[in-house]
Amino acid sequence: MVTLILCFCCNGNFYAQTSKKIDYTSDRTLKDENKYPGAIILSKVTNQVHFIHEGIEIWCDQAIHYDEANFFKAYGNVRMQQGDTVTMQSKYAEYNGTTQFAFASGNVKMSRPQSSIETDTLFFDRVKQQAYYRSGGTVRDTASVLTSRIGRYYMDQDKYSFLSDVKVTNPKYTINSQQLDFYSDSGAAYLYGPTTIVSETSTVYCERGFYDTRGDVGYFVKNSRIDYENRVLEGDSLYFNRAKSFASGTNNIKVTDTLNNSLITGHYAEVYREKDSVFITKRALAATIQDKDSIFIHSDTLMITGKPENRIVRGFYNVKLFKSDISGKSDSIYVNQKKGITKLLNIGNVPSTSVSTKRTPVIWSDNNQMTGDTIHILNNPVTEKLDSLKVFYDAFLIQKDSIEGYNQVKGKELTGLFVSNELYQVDIIKNTETIYYSRNEENELLGINKTLSSSIKILFEDKTIRDIYYYKQVDGTLTPPEEFPSNARELPGFNWRGEEQLLEKSDLFKGEEPPKLTKIKGIPLPEEQEDFFDETNGEPSLLNENSRLTPDDLKDTKVDSLGVPIKKIDSLLLDKKKKLEKKKKSGKGTTKI
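^ OstA-like protein, sequence as received from the core. Prediction below:
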């Protein structure tokens, strides 16, 4: 107990034991015990009144100095100078030499080499080396102007902490934030709570992020999105480079094309605004509305380039295509939205060494399968309905028979025509071969027809073959099924891939392991701030009894100096609550929110 009392007494007398008397010079010195008991009146004649104390100098036109109390009030053209780094100007100021606490009001401006604060009232604690305002202030940096209702400046870190209606104005953009920490030396800004960064070419939103106000580079990690003229980028983590017109995203990425009704998802993306291009990988998926239906393209990597009216989509490696009435696979894909053409290509866009290889592009429509070295699907750009398809090099059409076997047609090239998005005619030319299971109206098998010809026309009805027409150099007969050998019922190159057919959207990812997501480097919550006016530690009051201020003026209230309610940082409180709940679950105790 004795030890505690001694510590308390020593702490309480700290200022009294270490503080020095304020030195001053003045052209004129007066006394008025009736009006200013215990004080002297100092005033300017030729030279301003000059005070010196513990590394700070103050000049003013007139002052009321309480020598015994080590305190003065300064009036008119007040200027404070701390070393060669801090200068403060105001109409009025007061200084307590015992606590080294200063207060200034009236057109206050505090200047540092990299920045300045302008406000109506400013508190300056020289012991803590901190300045504070709560009636609105403006900070001017080498690149930007920052305003807020509440601000605090940490001189040792060259750091500003802004609260309530924070706004950063730069010739290139404007930032509006709920809370912002700004480092004047580097121009680094840490953003907390709902924040927007608005420019002519983009709008950034985040609830936690970092922005380099001089390098124009940003990093955003909570509920983040970047809006360009016709694209919106969202993700767990976003990087933004204004000078290079570049943005990238990591984990749970969404890129929305607002003009072309399309959405791209994945887990890593790069967006180049000036080139109007997007690169996306890690479970990449593009979805586009076409004829009131959605087309989905999935591949290892997707690239989207070109202006909105002429978008080009390219997909590379393990491409899968799905629409309610058609699906397909290929090594790569090319889509020209303006021309309404989709190309399914094999590796290198050269003929395959084997037509049976699973790398060969394939299209399924109901129970019809078409393969070839290259497949083109054409739709009407105006109506968005399927128009036709073309298969080049080793075209092969297979349709599963209603009971057994497969109807097969192969040739050099294939052209299919659609009506109301349904295949109704197929033409195959050059060295065509067919195997066809001929049935009567009762669906009884009459025979198997194997035919060679120069070209073939096939007509479909209800998605099944209705008629086949052979042209020129026809060589074939209808053979009873019992006389047609089983080992001859498949044409050379036959490869039925029905088990690969995509029947629903989820099949786009069938057989694929979910990607391992990158660990996001977060941005920590702002440090817990001690109260600027902390008088709970046994130290004497910051104020002198002769101060214009009262102890109530130093209390933290729910309103600022203008009487405006101070908003709580809801998003930050929510984060802290989540941490608290996590600690409770792990049994590691509790923390205060």
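DSSP finds three helices and 38 strands in the chain.
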